[in-house]
Design a protein that fits this description.
The chain has about 240 residues and is an alpha/beta fold. It has a single domain, classed as Rossmann fold. Helices cover about 40% and strands about 20% of the residues.
């Protein structure tokens, strides 16, 4: 990402922490941004994600550790950059996670919050939101923390409320164009159908089953595109 690369072009960065790394999508972006010249640690409480990350990134300068963002097992002032990408709406305790991120970042270091945005979407992006929000609804029924997504101004408000000074913020697209390929759209439909299947035998099934044919109709008409993501570059308020 050129804007991020330009921002950090004259800043000394040797060690980065990615909180809630999943299988490493943001680790890949960070590694590209810093041209493989920094040590990156990805942490996630999900063991299956860590296994995928280790398979995707065998490089010596990238590591994955099973750990919760609410309790980072690192000393104070350890990292030059601490990132949180598309994990904000998954956090059980947002304030505690931010406090931990601010604790382990070095004085004068940087916090990156990258989060999917929920405002002013195209019809194709609305389809991604529809699938994502249905997934979050099903997850919550299973007792999993998964909030609906926020608008950009709401994300910024959360960041500021948690005592992070916003230095820069901008929207960007992970998926640059609308995907209308039949196999791709069929896969998205199957994801929605699988989620609905998890509700069989529950009252929520009858309440939500009409979303599936509507989703198929919308996919055929508009295609699918991921919603914009808001990148926030900030610093801890000391």
């Amino acid at each position: 990402m050129k804007r991020l690369q330009h921002f950090f072009s004259n800043k000394p960065v040797t060690r980065i922490l990615d909180v809630g790394s999943g299988s490493g999508d943001f680790v890949k972006l960070l590694d590209t941004t810093f041209e493989g010249k920094v040590r990156i640690t990805g942490i996630d409480p999900g063991e299956q994600w860590l296994k995928e990350g280790l398979t995707r990134f065998p490089q010596e300068h990238i590591e994955f550790i099973r750990m919760s963002g609410e309790q980072l097992q690192f000393q104070d002032n350890t990292f030059d950059v601490v990132a949180l990408s598309n994990a904000l709406h998954h956090l059980e305790n947002i304030e505690q996670t931010f406090n931990e991120m601010k604790r382990v970042v070095k004085p004068g270091g940087w916090l990156l919050i990258n989060e999917i945005s929920n405002g002013e979407l195209t019809p194709a992006q609305e389809n991604q939101r529809m699938l994502h929000h249905f997934k979050s609804f099903v997850d919550r029924l299973h007792g999993i923390t998964h909030r609906p997504t926020w608008r950009s101004d709401e994300i910024l408000e959360i960041v500021i409320q948690n005592k992070v000074a916003v230095i820069d913020s901008f929207l960007h697209l992970k998926m640059k164009t609308v995907n209308r390929e039949e196999l791709f759209l069929d896969d998205k439909y199957r994801q929605m159908a699988s989620l609905l299947e998890e509700l069989q035998g529950r009252p929520e099934f009858e309440q939500t089953k009409d979303q599936l044919p509507l989703f198929r109709e919308r996919l055929a008409k508009h295609g699918f595109q991921t919603a914009p993501q808001l990148m926030v570059i900030g610093q801890a308020m000391r």
